[in-house]
TrEMBL record:
It comes from the Bacteria. Residues 12-240 form the ABC transporter domain. This is ABC transporter ATP-binding protein. The keyword Cytoplasm does not apply. It comes from Xanthobacter flavus. GO terms for molecular function: ATP binding; ATP hydrolysis activity. InterPro entries: AAA+_ATPase, ABC_transporter-like_ATP-bd, ABC_transporter-like_CS, ABC_transporter_ATP-bind, P-loop_NTPase. Keywords: ATP-binding, Nucleotide-binding, Transport. Belongs to the ABC transporter superfamily.
Length: 270
């Protein structure tokens, strides 16, 4: 069975979201069309789709960094109009402050919110330990591997106690082996924190391995093509990727987007 998810409480509600980018002297670009999606408290949901299908655009709308053209995003029933402490974003490239050690990077969001330094560091230490970084508190970002820097990023995001953690291709810059290790680390952190997670990824096997559900987007304008439940038992180890049921789920999702992915690759080559 999957981890206990509150089947009633909605952490995130996306209702009729549309996004059109207006361009001076050029045709407008419709990025998203009628996105409707609900994510429950404690759930881990991933979105996959061809490049340019609006996945990252939707994440930025949810975070309040970008306005929707129409529709509404609600977090715990409250409409999103701007960035807020109830959401935290982790991007593909780490955004650590190079002049601060790990402990101060993780505590940064708390300190700028006015939390006393001692309390901020105590909270940061808890998430540093959770992320497997104990002993690296006084290391600077340049002294860490790419995978460790992303763990610091995740710890910093969780330290502010968001209702929803938004992940935009957080492991894309890592090599294949480190990426797989980071997937298991992320699952461990998620299991311990209980935070709701919405992940954008181009890696179908990553989405299947991590998620309770995978949302498949159509090509631009992005819309929800299908929702795929992932009934694989938890906790999950990397060995599950060798199971027949795992491969069948990956194949099912790939067949939904294969034509659009190949078209996107061809367009980029043209």
């Amino acid at each position: 069975m999957n981890r206990g998810v509150n089947q009633m409480a909605e952490a995130l509600s996306i209702e009729g979201i549309n996004k059109v980018f207006e361009r001076a002297g050029k045709p407008s670009v419709e990025a998203l069309r009628d996105i409707n999606l609900t994510v429950r408290e404690g759930e881990f949901v991933s979105i996959v789709g061809a490049s340019g299908s609006g996945k990252s655009t939707l994440l930025r709308i949810i975070d309040g960094l970008l306005p929707a053209s129409s529709g509404v995003v609600k977090v715990s029933g409250h409409a999103v109009t701007r960035p807020g402490a109830d959401r935290a974003m982790v991007f593909q490239q780490d955004a650590l402050l190079p002049w601060k050690p790990v402990i101060e990077n993780v505590a940064y969001g708390l300190t700028i919110a006015g939390t006393p330094k001692r309390d901020a560091h105590a909270t940061a230490q808890r998430f540093i330990d959770m992320a497997g970084l104990k002993g690296f508190e006084q290391h600077y970002p340049h002294q860490l591997s790419g995978g460790m820097r992303q763990r610091v990023n995740v710890a910093r995001a969780l330290a502010v106690n968001p209702k929803i953690l938004l992940l935009d291709e957080p492991f894309a810059a890592l090599d294949a082996q480190t990426r797989e290790i980071m997937q298991t680390e992320l699952l461990n952190i998620w299991q311990k924190s209980g935070t709701t997670v919405l992940l954008i990824t181009h890696q179908i096997d990553e989405a299947v391995f991590l998620s309770d559900r995978v949302i498949v987007f159509s090509a631009r304008p992005g819309s929800v093509r299908e929702e795929i439940p992932i009934p694989l038992p938890r906790p999950r180890a990397l060995e599950v990727k060798r199971h027949e049921a795992f491969g069948a789920l990956v194949d099912r999702i790939w067949h939904l987007i294969e034509h659009e992915v190949r078209s996107a690759v061809a367009d980029n080559r043209a």
